[in-house]
Amino acid sequence: MASKPPAAAAAAAANTTPRKPGTPSEKTKPADAKGKGATDKKGKDAGDKAGEGEQAAPEPTSGSGKFHYQNGATYEGDWILEALPANESAAPAAPAVEKANGRRFRHGRGTFVDGTYSYTGEWDHDQMHGKGMFAYASGAIYDGEWVRNRYQGKGAFRWKDGRSYTGDWVENKMHGSGTYVGKDGHSWTGQFFNGSGPGLTCHV
């Protein structure tokens, strides 16, 4: 039987845009974040050598740790420290994540939590990029591939009421081959285009 998913559901998926997490370089201050090589062989923190007549070890350029945002959000995972552009300098009152010698980015794998929503997965210079899962305050979940903070590639979106879509995504929209399952358990499989699925086959 030829059918297609409810227009409202398709529109909802097409219009669901993940919130862009705040960047540590703008809003955060680190807490108990330690990078690779941040301690000496005796287990002392590199900063503890100050005043002992010993030269402090260079600051690590990558590592993992937990960061606390001023609004209560947190990030726990991998990071990198990169030099500021030649024409840019750290602000006088910049938080510790933005220093005179560079800026720290979420990069690698980590978990960002802000109130009732969260993202766990891969990061590239403060952007959700790679594979990861985003959980919304509404109870909806997207689990799949990302490109620069957008659903892109293979992924599955599940609504709280039981509806789901599994398949291809382009620019946050269901686009390509996929399967949509309604609340009643009926599923539609076929080609989606910009969030809708004309000419789909319904499986009861």
Automatic annotation (TrEMBL):
Disordered: annotated span: 1-69
Pfam annotation, one family: MORN
Keywords from the named record: Kinase, Repeat, Transferase
Entry-linked SMART domains: MORN
UniProt key word Repeat: yes
Family matches, as InterPro entries: MORN, MORN_repeat_protein
Basic and acidic residues composition bias: residue spans: 26-52
Top-rank taxon, per record: Eukaryota
Protein name: 1-phosphatidylinositol-4-phosphate 5-kinase
Species this protein is from: Klebsormidium nitens
